[in-house]
Design brief:
The chain is an all-alpha fold. Helix content is about 60%, strand content about 0%.
Length: about 375
């Protein structure tokens, strides 16, 4: 089942309010956005969620509110692009495949309902992005890595689900940065940015409340905490209002030493919660054991396994086997694409199944 990015009751309320505002029946709304009436009924009975809609349908919904709808293309087709939408979307997917060194099957594995033929049509410039559902677009954007999962979610769905909502953590982070730079350090934006290793524009966005701290790398949180004279835990607790952390930040990630630098705060928060029950350790051990079993079953050397599993260099594979690091989204996708990387039942792992195993959380909780 596709994951639902937001409780369907919230999207259902949006549809209900939209019908009342426009004085439309289910049939009338369905005709306005050119979809079967059954889809409206499924939304109202919570059988489907916002992420199951095609991008084109979602854009029509937004246009009924007289909102700008063209911004929905911008994460994968910038305004500066001279390409039309079909060509731009094709180039976006081909860029992901090239940079991540994956094939059509790998991309299709991102979502169960997507076929290799469909992905091929996209890359050949035969599929308009309006024909692609929001869940698949979301997964492509997360795989590309320019936006975090939280940023993708907010970008696409926040206007519909709560157009006036400003998350608590955004305000707290803005206030913290302004206070630290102006009152405590008394330095310019440029100098402040240099100390953190970010651009001046990034600091400006922080101070304007345009950045959700979920999207910020933990290494930058560490630098901010150091400048304040705080620990990372103290800064996280201040921004998120979470005073119930019982696990030491360093202890939580002692078996995944790369997490405090390359992972974003959102994932770290989820892993911190899981660590209270030791689930992160179980996930690391379980994933490591599955890789070991595969290598032993195929009687592979580390060099051969590194090549077949497409986990390079060999030292990277060793880190995964020794439970020092978690695999990246791309490494998970490559594993799911291997025809002989199977469960005990003989079935192949799906991308979502492997992610659930690794992080110890289901899609609905991500």
């Amino acid at each position: 089942m596709p994951m639902v990015l937001e409780p369907t009751t919230t999207f259902r309320d949006f549809i209900t309010n939209l019908k009342a505002e426009l004085r439309l029946t289910n049939l009338g709304l369905a005709k306005r956005i050119d979809i079967p009436t059954k889809i409206i009924l499924d939304i109202e009975t919570q059988k489907t969620g916002i992420d199951n809609l095609e991008l084109g349908v979602y854009r029509k919904l937004i246009s009924l509110k007289n909102w700008n709808r063209n911004y929905l293309y911008e994460p994968f087709i910038p305004k500066s692009s001279s390409k039309n939408l079909v060509e731009g979307f094709a180039d976006f997917v081909k860029k992901i495949m090239q940079e991540c060194q994956v094939n059509l099957q790998d991309i299709a594995n991102l979502q169960e309902e997507i076929t290799v033929d469909f992905v091929s049509q996209i890359t050949n410039g035969e599929i308009h992005p309006d024909r692609v559902n929001l869940l698949f677009i979301k997964k492509l954007l997360i795989l590309e890595g320019a936006l975090s999962e939280k940023q993708v979610h907010d970008y696409y769905f926040r206007p519909v689900l709560d157009s006036e909502f400003t998350p608590y953590e955004v305000t707290r982070f803005k206030e913290f940065v302004l206070d630290l730079r102006n009152r405590i350090l008394h330095v310019s934006q440029r100098y402040f940015a240099e100390q953190l290793g970010v651009s001046g524009g990034t600091v400006s966005l922080w101070e304007k409340g345009k950045t959700n701290p979920d999207s910020i790398k933990i290494e930058h949180f560490r630098s901010l905490a150091d400048l304040k004279g705080w620990t990372v835990e103290e800064l996280i607790n201040y921004i998120y209002g979470n005073e119930d952390q019982v696990e030491s930040y360093e202890v939580v990630f002692s078996k995944a030493k790369n997490l405090p630098t390359i992972f974003k705060i959102k994932l770290a928060q989820e892993l911190l919660a899981l660590a209270e029950e030791g689930l992160i350790y179980q996930s690391l051990e379980k994933f490591s054991q599955i890789i070991k079993n595969y290598i032993e079953e195929k009687n592979l050397s580390l060099e051969e396994a590194s090549k077949r599993l497409r986990i390079k260099p060999v030292s990277r594979l060793e880190s995964l086997l020794n439970q020092k690091e978690l695999p990246t989204n791309m490494e998970v996708l490559r594993l799911s694409s291997l025809p002989d990387f199977l469960k005990e039942s003989g079935d192949r792992y799906t991308y979502d199944e492997l992610k659930t195993m690794i992080y110890g959380i289901t899609n609905e909780n991500q």
